[in-house]
Design a protein that fits this description.
two-stranded antiparallel ribbon, 6 helices, 4 strands, disordered C terminus
Length: 143
């Protein structure tokens, strides 16, 4: 049996691009959060929780986390953050998330329910929300 390593190359699940395209990202975040190779790390979960609890604050979230190129245009985040990408590509249309973008309204609702259940609480520490963690030389939040 091969030994487990800390390498991200051991992850055998779908790519972020595949999950976004197939609208299975929320499902994989939820089902893999306790895996050896979760989809999101703690600081990204903190950021995602803030977004799904109040999606209408997406511009403020990106600004607070220094992820906007030119606030408040909603351009892609500079940091390379998957959650930043989801937030930057969120739009409201009659109260529903725009399906052509990164995450559907149903995915957002599923994640909100999951966060409200308290299931991911133990794995959420750090990020721009809590002041824990740090930005590396490339400006990416690290745990």
């Amino acid at each position: 049996m091969p030994s487990q390593s800390d390498s991200t190359t051991d992850y055998a699940g779908p790519s972020a691009r595949e999950m976004i395209h197939s609208h299975t990202l929320a499902h994989n975040i939820i089902t893999r959060h306790d895996d050896a190779y979760p989809v999101l790390g703690p600081s990204e979960l903190v950021l995602l929780r803030r977004f799904v609890m109040a999606p209408d604050t997406h511009h403020e979230i990106l600004k607070d986390c220094d992820m906007l190129e030119n606030p408040p245009t909603g351009e892609l985040p500079r940091q390379g953050s998957l959650v930043g990408y989801i937030i930057a590509n969120y739009e409201e249309s009659d109260g529903q998330a725009n399906i052509k973008l990164a995450m559907t309204a149903k995915e957002i609702a599923d994640l909100k329910k999951w966060f409200e259940s308290g299931a991911p609480d133990k794995s959420m520490e750090g990020g721009c929300e809590t002041g824990k963690g740090h930005k590396d030389a490339d400006g990416v939040w690290r745990d």
